[in-house]
Amino acid sequence: MNKPAREFEHAHSAHCESGAFTALLRHNGLRLTESLVFGIGSGLFFLYFPLLKIYGAPLVAYRDAPNAIMTRGARRLGVRLHKARFRDADRGMRALDQALAEGVPVGMQTGVFWLPYFPRDMRFQFNGHHVIAYAKEAEEYLLSDTVFEAAVRCHEADLRRARFSKGPLAPKGLLYRIVGIDGEPDLAAAVRAGLKTTTWRMLKIPIRYMGVKGIGTLAHALASWPATLPDTTARSWLANIIRMQEEIGTGGGGFRYMYAAFLDEAADILKQPALHAISEQFTDIGDRWRDFAVAGAQVIRDNDACAAAYAALSARMLDCAAREQRAFEEIGKLLHR
Amino acid sequence: MRIEDIPQEPSILDGRLRACYARNAAGRYEVATSKGWEVERIANQLAVGEVNAHIACALAAVRAGKASALAYHMARAHMDARLLAAHSGFWVWQVKRHMQPRHFQRLGEKALRRHADALGIDLATLTGPVPA
């Protein structure tokens, strides 16, 4: 069933983690789409955590924590993963070389800043990026970084630095590989579990920084920024929201389009045509997040620090929150039927 | 989002393409590519500009003799004292100390090498003159 790693099939994906995991599954004979894996792994989320500052701006995420998609996805698809972290970088690199020598492609967690093949303006200190190594030639690794359209090469020294980058979310050389798949996965059960977790997380977590409540909390905070922050800070925090939504590989609209694609597939797998209609709603929600980004970019470009501009952005975001609330409530009702 | 509506604007991708989810003519989602989006460029360039301003500020401090070359190279690696400490294994207070010219000058090769490795530059770059 396993093909040699050299024949690794690169596929362009929207998101690094779901893309890498999907590619590893395909290499092991399980062909699923990235969006399906994203949905089954309950990748969609919203988190606003003002106490944690990244580059000086509060943490905003449109998806779940790094490694969550892969871990949940593996469990729900009956895929056995082998994961290893390393304290010692030399040992970590040797383990990678050994896996490649055995012909096994491996996923790795890396720090984007140290990967030279990234476009210059996208190299920021972020340690949650996933790539697959599938071969080594002399001192260069052949990597399948699914957010790029083609496979890339990376020098040993750079990859080592990226794998052992420090700071928040430090990857500690994380390597993972698929060691086995337990029979044909029960896709219906997996999809159902994926939907259930995401619905619960978006609607029911009793913390106001998470899920739909988190969107609301951020929207209210956003409206207050012109009054409480210096103009430049308000602008840079706003830019941070847009970047988390679009720049870091979300498939557009902060993963909402990818989720719409998943719901379409879920409708067919679960034979629930009502999910097609909810997919439609998520397309609309994605469009509204894109509109928010357009309006936000305008505020940034025009250096518009007036409270009214931020209030208008806040209203757009609250509208997205209300629509996501309704959409997930409908999914919840379908699941309970 | 429909495939024909995906923005194809000059952006931050250095000629690379980004995968996007959009609906095709049949109304089904598929993965299509985007050359970039003006909106993401505006947001990104603000962040890049901030980092660059920070680097310029550090460079000015180094030239004025108020900070050591470490401060400049740290800014270039998008690091603050805490992150560099995590990478180099020094304590934060030590890193802050090494950012002062008089303490930096007294550092031995071993310590300098640790900083250089953590910053991903060679020793000569760290100890050499900063750009004029």
Could you walk me through the main structural features you see in this protein, from its secondary elements to its overall organization?
- The complex is a heterodimer of chains A (337) and B (132).
- Chain A is globular and about 60 Å long.
- With 337 residues, chain A is α+β, with helices and mostly antiparallel strands.
- The longest helix of chain A has 30 residues.
- In chain A, the strands form two sheets. Chain A has a six-stranded antiparallel sheet with strand order 3-8-4-5-6-7, with helices on both faces. In chain A, strands 1-2 form a two-stranded antiparallel sheet.
- Chain A is built from eleven helices and eight strands.
- The two termini of chain A are 38 Å apart.
- Chain A has two domains: 130 residues, Alpha-Beta Complex (Cathepsin B, Chain A); 150 residues, Four Helix Bundle (Hemerythrin (Met), subunit A), CATH 1.20.120.
- In chain A, helix 6 packs across helix 11.
- With 132 residues, chain B is mainly alpha-helical.
- Chain B has two domains: 34 residues, no CATH class; 76 residues, 434 Repressor (Amino-terminal Domain) (Orthogonal Bundle), CATH 1.10.260.
- Chain B contains seven helices and two strands; from the N terminus they run E-E-H-H-H-H-H-H-H.
- In chain B, strands 1-2 form a two-stranded antiparallel sheet.
- In chain B, helix 1 runs antiparallel to helix 2 and helix 3 crosses helix 4.
- Chains A and B meet through helix 8, helix 9 and helix 10 of A and strand 1, strand 2, helix 1 and helix 3 of B.
